[in-house]
Amino acid sequence: MSIGYFYAVYAGNMVICGLLGSYTRLRIAALSISTESIDSPDRFTRWTTRYMFFQCWLLLITALSLLYATPLVKALAAVSVPKPLGFGVYLLTCFPLAVLCYRWDLRAVRRADARKLAGREAFRKRWLDR
């Protein structure tokens, strides 16, 4: 098994889960509160939602970090890092920023709960309690 196969599987997983994570992020931003998603008592729901959030941010950060990828790969080649490993090092440099954005996003979702609950209550009073 070559290292190119590993990168292809990793990139495919990142793209597919990143796109699903974008959908999950938008769905939760519009409809769910944190106890129904990222802080759910159900372990499967909690961890899959968190994984999708992280993959969404990793996909976005990786796509945006292509701006500095060319100079980084040239710098890695200058210090004699083997060419097949340069791409892996580049992907590893995306993780710290993706983790920061992920943590910020979880905090924002938790802070939005009060406003979502107030909106649900206002909707119930306006349309359902007549």
- Unreliable residue runs: none
Fraction of helical residues: over 70%
Biggest beta sheet summary: none
Computed over alpha carbons, the radius of gyration is 19 Å
Tell me, briefly, the overall form.
elongated
DSSP summary, beta strand count = 0
Counted by DSSP, the helix tally is 5
SSE order, one letter for each helix or strand: HHHHH
What is the mean predicted local confidence, pLDDT? Answer: 86
Distance between the termini: 66 Å
The proportion of strand residues reads: under 5%
Structural class: mainly alpha
Account of the protein in words:
This protein is mostly helical. It has helices spanning 3-31, 43-64, 66-78, 83-111, 113-128. α1 (3-31) packs parallel to α4, α2 (43-64) crosses α4 (83-111) and α3 runs antiparallel to α4. The longest helix has 29 residues, at 3-31. It is elongated, with a radius of gyration of 19 Å. It starts with a helix and ends with a helix. 15% of the residues are buried. The mean pLDDT is 86.
